[in-house]
Each structure stands twice: as structure tokens, then as C-alpha cells.
Amino acid sequence: MPGPAGDVAAPGLAEDAAALRRALAESDGAVVVGHSYGGTVMAEGADHPSARHLVYITSYLPEAGTSQAEIMAEEPDPVVVEPGPDGALRIAGYDPETFGRRFWQDLDDDAARRGAWERVTAQSAAAFTTPTTRAAWQGVPSTYLVCVRDGSTSLALQRRHAARATASFDLETGHHPFLSAPEAVAERLVEILGAVREA
């Protein structure tokens, strides 16, 4: 997505959703997978005939008219973001160790933890403050993967959004299951792909 580019002038939700629609336009049938903020992008951009199924990984299925900031405000202990000198929003109050305890507490590979921290970047405020205008999940079958041990997106908030999906499954992982339990994620995605092909 173009949004996580690390400066205040970077594209936001509208541009991220447009990029998704362009990718879908090049497909004759896709399973779209979104993690965290990616679910908000899917809500805005996956209302496309090529979108056959939506997969949300510890993510969000917002109603139209909802911004990412509004979703995050529902958290009892939200991750704090603040503008940097350039105005772009950055995670605030964390170092590699404390960030790892919240986001990667189930990731044992130190090199992977360091690499993930190095890829944490800023986003434009528009990614957080722009309300959605669509809710693609209302018209496309969807599956929600609930990450039960997530220290970032609360289980209660995940359950609320998972209730909007067609189906949901629990993973005993933190916020990044594709890093800590890639086999479990791949197994579920293969099942979904098989079901979509048979439909």
C-alpha cells in the first residue's frame, strides 16, 4: 500500500484503497487478506467484482463513515501515536523491547523481532483520520482470524469485528501470526482458497 510511506505528505486511506482496487482490476478472482489497518483498507477498496473472499487477520470491519482513529479509540489501552516533526504519525513511547512485548510476545526469533522493529514506519494522518465511504465486507464473503493473545488489538474488539464476518476462527497467537505461526495462517488460507475454488 502507498500509505505507510513515512511522511506527512504520504497517501492515506483513499490512495491505499485505490491501489487495492487497481490490483483487483488485474485479477479475475482474488482472496484478499488484510492485517490490522489493512482491514479498513479492504472495507474501502475491496468492493470489486474480482474480490471473491476477504480474510481479516486481527483486523477491522468498519461500518461506512468510520475512521481508523475512531476504531482505535474503542480500545481500553490503545497504542499511542503522535505526530513527528514532519507531521507524520508515529508509534509513541516504545523501544524495541517494549514494542516486542506488546506486538511480538509470541515470536521467539530475536533476528525476526529486530527485523520487524526496523520496518516499523510512520503513516500520514490521512490513513487514520479519513472515514470510510464503503463497507465491502457487507457484500463479499469473509473470514476473520482472531488472534487470541494479541497485545495490541484487544480480544473484545476483535470479537466485535469478527461477528460481522461470515466466519471466524481463533489462532493462539499475538498480533503478527504470519511471523509467529506462519504454518497455522497458511493452513487456514489454503482451506479458504479451496472453498472459494469449489464455490
UniProtKB/TrEMBL annotation:
One of its GO terms (molecular function) is hydrolase activity. Residues 10-187 form the AB hydrolase-1 domain. This is Alpha/beta hydrolase. InterPro entries: AB_hydrolase_1 (IPR000073), AB_hydrolase_fold (IPR029058), Sec-Metab_Biosynth_Hydrolase (IPR052897). Keywords: Hydrolase. Gene3D superfamilies: alpha/beta hydrolase. Pfam families: Abhydrolase_6. The keyword Hydrolase applies. It comes from the Bacteria.
